[in-house]
Amino acid sequence: MLCLSLPPSKLYWIVWFAYLPILWVISRSSITESLIYGLICGAVYYSLSFQWTYAFQPYALAFVSILQGLLFVAFPLVIIRFLLRFPVWSLFSVPSIWVFFEYLKQVWFLKFPFGIIGYSQYYWPRLIQIADITGVWGISWIIVFINLLLFRILTIILSGESKKKTRALFIYPAMIIAVFGLLLVYGSVRAALLQYNPHTSLKVGFAQTLFHPKKKWHDHWEEYLSIIEDQFQKLSGLDADLVLFPELTVERYLTLDRAIRIESNAEILNRLSKLARQSNAALLFGGIELKQQNKQIEKYNTTFLFSKTGDLSGLYRKQVLVPFGEFYPFGNFLPGLKTYISETTDAVELMPGHNQTVFSVRNRKNENLTFGVLTCFESGFGSLARRYAQKDVDFLVNVTNDYWSLSSIAMVQHAVMSVFRAIETRRPVLRISNGGFSCYVDEIGKYSSTIPLFRKGLMTARLRLLATPGRTAYTLLGDWFVLLCLLIVLSYPLILVLRKAGK
User: Fold this and answer.
1) CB within 8 A of 332, min separation 6: which ones?
2) What CATH code would you report for 198-319+354-466?
3) Which residues on neighbouring strands pair with residue 317, listed in sequence order?
4) In this structure, what are the phi and psi dihedrals at residue 333, rounded to the nearest 5 degrees?
5) pLDDT digits over 137-159, tens only?
6) Is residue 503's pLDDT more than 80?
């Protein structure tokens, strides 16, 4: 049921009662049994929802399913089993502990931003506008809260205590109606209050290149570069001010360091610079950058921007790297594992960047607009988008290359994260991918343009800006809601300790 509620399925409504079976089982099980049932639930959930991890490495699916299922489904369910003993406190502590573990999944060293249950509601934009206050965590909390209310109702009915607990049978449904009502009212009002600047806009071109992951750049770089030039010229001919290309558009080593000599490096950069200058359109693209540091050659996943004048006006080095794909978490302790992964996958060991770059681009009126780049699955981390919003950028760009997975499921699951980044920051998100899902997401999380999956294609979008974008509560306060969840979980034990100390 949880799997069916996730994208690309349109059965997002199933999640509102998907937790009922596992809540029923663990409430009637021992701690050991709850751990086993939780692990089964978690492993099945991750293996079915994220089977595309198999495309990276055959053992990746088993690793993700068992580890994530144990740590972020089984463990919280064991805690939830204990919390269910407290009827009133559990209503708030159960969804809080679930959200806290979802947050831990993002911040520990094996970062995996997929599987957060709040993302299931991307298809219902009116309901999720509260994310500009709580982030996606608030949506996850409400989903588990509604499930728990339904569980309480179900328990009362099946236990034959309906006559004894008529008050609860009135209060719980009323709470469910009230929650949905408040969310929809807030979402409608919030969307209605947004006003756009009628005088400032930016025309953006999207180039979905569809460079096959198994067809290496090194052997086809002239062919691929010609495709880039052709796509760019077509989009600039449509008066695009900024043309977006995906992550690792140029999958050859590039460098700005004169101490490093790489074949064809100068030719590629010069051709791209000339392309931007002659077409009077800015060019954003990604590549692997080499940089010499302390006599060592470091590699970065870098996004470059050539301005309309052909100058390199900025670059951004990806900060959050993919475990096992871009860095080896256990490399120092398990060198054999590092060797095995490097030999059986396309993994490249990279260095993380340390700074967020604010890029700038000029529109046809010569007005300067600013934006920040989220590379690949960095779009799954609200804290990164939030930092850009704190710098008052006008919009966000997510450059990615999900084509490696050869999975439409992976592409859509990744793409819907941008919906929440747009709502949380009230900044439009322009998403460009090698094989899809390339799209334009506005400030309320709605798609207005897309390029079909697994197709080489072009599109343009007119970027509108809010008259007074300001800063949302989430932009100002960050993941405060997660801290509140932790305080809720700790509140009852703390009260008991204080009472005991008072005696």
Assistant:
1) none
2) 3.60.110.10
3) 302
4) -95, -30
5) 999 999 999 999 999 999 999 98
6) no
